[in-house]
Amino acid sequence: MFGIIPRPLWERTNPPDERNRIRLALRPLLIRTGTANVLVDTGIGDKWDEKSRDIYRIEKTATLADSLARLGLAPEDITHVVLTHLHFDHAGGTTGLDPRNQPRPCFPRARHFVQAVEWEDATHPNRRTRGAYLPENFLPLEQAGLLELVTGTQELLPGVELLHAGGHTRGLMLVRIRAEGRTAIYWSDLIPTTSHIATPYIMGYDLFPLQTMEQKERLIDQACDEGWLSFFAHDPLHAGGRITRRDDSFGIEPFSFRNGD
């Protein structure tokens, strides 16, 4: 998760267990516009055998369906699903298993938005990327006619913008929301945790690390200058906050959220 950063540095804030695993969260984001329910990413899903659950130490306090139900929503109420990229920890909950143990879309009424280059890379993986792209998480979307491929940065809905960032993968997207004079951003895996706000903290998973660094420097400066609200997909403690600048370094002013939000 920290690339070339030496362990004595990153373990201060992210202590590993005896198998060198660190605690991470899996946080999709729900955007409600009044006419649309937009789900950004779907987490790791439930299609895992016991061996994989042990390898990744998958622990759940609630399923995605449970979290939606607490807000009075069913999967059928989701109108848009934005997949920031198609790695299994962001797209795994897009499909579930039917009674015949076959994958089927979990959000049958939603259009699912993916960068065209991300779809190309996920459906034609190389030896390095094959383990992160699991076809059962995304091919059923195309088969069901629910897939929408987008190119570059574009507006999804008024006030909801898909930003093509790249870096982590060629097709990584961020989601920026503007409403009532405020701006928020879902960083996905450009800044997966608050530890990754510092420019050199780049994941070893990133396919284009220099692009990650360039995008972080540009967007974090803008986030600080304009007071954006930041949402973090994987931080184990902080779902969101404001990134602050102190001289040549950055900090975080975390928000408090109700459990499950």
TrEMBL record:
For this protein, the record's SMART domains field holds: Lactamase_B (SM00849)
Record-given protein name:
MBL fold metallo-hydrolase
Q: Name one GO molecular function term.
A: hydrolase activity
Record-linked InterPro entries = MBL_superfamily_lactonases, Metallo-B-lactamas, RibonucZ/Hydroxyglut_hydro
Cell wall biogenesis/degradation: is it a keyword of this entry? no
Looking up SUPFAM superfamilies in the UniProt record yields: Metallo-hydrolase/oxidoreductase
Q: Which residues form the Metallo-beta-lactamase domain?
A: 25-234
The alphabetized UniProt keywords are: Hydrolase, Metal-binding, Zinc
Q: Which domain of life is it from?
A: Bacteria
Q: Which organism is it from?
A: candidate division WOR-3 bacterium
| Family to which the UniProt record says this protein belongs | Belongs to the metallo-beta-lactamase superfamily.
